[in-house]
Write a structure and sequence with these properties.
The chain has a single domain, classed as Alpha-Beta Plaits, CATH 3.30.70.100. A four-stranded antiparallel sheet has the order 2-3-1-4. It has about 100 residues and is of the alpha+beta class. The protein is globular. Helix content is about 40%, strand content about 30%. Helix 1 runs antiparallel to helix 3. This is Dabb family protein.
Length: about 100
C-alpha cells in the first residue's frame, strides 16, 4: 500500500527568508545523501494553508517505509542540527500520512 507523507510547517512570516534559507540546506542534504527520502517542497498560492506555510511531501511504497524514513530523519545528526536552527522560526508543525486509493 503506497503512502504519502506531508510535513506541514507554518513559520513566522517576518522570517520567511531565514526559514527558506535553512530549508534550502535541507534540500541539499536530500540531494547529496542517498539515504535521505527525496521529497518535494511547496509554498501555497491559495487554499486552506497560509502563505507562510511550507509543505514537504514524499511518497513511499508502504507505511513501514514511511515510518522508517521519519525515524531516520529524527536520528540523523545533520538533519537534527538544521532542524534546531530552524525551530525558532516555527509557529506550528504537523505530519500527515495518506494512503493511496488507486494502485
Amino acid at each position: 500500500m503506497k503512502v504519502k507523507v506531508r510535513l506541514v510547517q507554518r513559520f513566522q512570516a517576518a522570517s520567511k527568508e531565514q526559514f527558506l534559507t535553512l530549508e534550502r540546506q535541507f534540500a541539499l542534504l536530500e540531494r547529496e545523501n542517498p539515504a535521505f527520502p527525496k521529497g518535494k517542497r511547496y509554498l501555497p498560492y491559495s487554499g486552506r494553508e497560509a502563505g507562510n506555510t511550507l509543505i514537504w511531501e514524499c511518497e513511499f511504497e508502504s507505511l513501514e517505509a514511511a515510518n522508517q524514513a521519519l525515524i531516520f530523519l529524527e536520528q540523523d545528526t545533520s538533519h537534527e542540527e538544521l532542524a534546531q536552527r530552524q525551530l525558532p522560526y516555527f509557529q506550528d508543525a504537523y505530519t500527515e500520512i495518506y494512503r493511496l486509493l488507486e494502485d
